[in-house]
């Protein structure tokens, strides 16, 4: 799938999730994230995902935006072509990697080997 299409789908999904979560829990979170983007505290998700695609190719499964103290963090779950599930924590202002966790996804390997 082309990166632009993947980014568009991810942005729409994340926007829908943020909006739904805002209605369901605290509409404040959406406004804080919007203000953080407008004030330059965070990069647009599109920019972060484009940077990530160059460094860590794979399929983006999930993206969350969280604020821990004064630091905004994008949490990204990424499925690589080799079946590795990678959880990344990225500084939302710089797109720099903060933390990376790898997990093998045995179910995917079983499906691929049975084909």
Explain what this protein looks like in three dimensions.
The protein is globular, with a radius of gyration of 15 Å. It has helices spanning 3-24, 27-38, 45-55, 106-113, and strands at 59-68, 71-79, 84-91, 97-104. The protein has a four-stranded antiparallel beta sheet. Helix content is 46%, strand content 30%. The chain has a single domain (3-113), classed as Nuclear Transport Factor 2, Chain: A. Helix 1 (3-24) packs across helix 2 (27-38). The longest helix is centred in the N-terminal third of the chain and has 22 residues, at 3-24. A hairpin with a 2-residue loop joins strand 1 (59-68) and strand 2 (71-79). It has 115 residues and is of the alpha+beta class. The protein has four helices and four strands.
Q: What order do the helices and strands come in, and which of them pair?
A:
Blueprint: H1 3-24, H2 27-38, H3 45-55, E1 59-68, E2 71-79, E3 84-91, E4 97-104, H4 106-113
Antiparallel strand pairs: 1-2, 2-3, 3-4
- Side-by-side strand order of the widest sheet: 1-2-3-4
> Strand tally, please?
4
Q: Which word captures the global form?
A: globular
Distance between the termini: 21 Å
**Average pLDDT taken over every residue:** 80
Rg over C-alpha atoms, rounded to the nearest angstrom: 15 Å
Approximate helicity band: 40-55%
Name of the level-1 CATH class = Alpha Beta
């Amino acid at each position: 799938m082309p990166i632009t299409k993947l980014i568009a789908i991810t942005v729409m999904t994340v926007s829908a999730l943020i909006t739904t979560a805002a209605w369901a829990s605290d509409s404040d979170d959406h406004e804080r994230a919007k203000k953080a983007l407008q004030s330059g505290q965070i990069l647009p998700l599109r920019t972060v995902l484009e940077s990530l695609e160059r460094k860590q190719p794979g399929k983006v499964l999930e993206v969350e935006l969280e604020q821990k103290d004064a630091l905004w963090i994008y949490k990204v779950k990424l499925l690589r072509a080799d079946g590795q599930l990678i959880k990344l924590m990225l500084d939302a202002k710089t797109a720099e990697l903060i933390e990376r966790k790898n997990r093998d996804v045995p179910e995917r390997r079983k499906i691929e080997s049975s084909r």
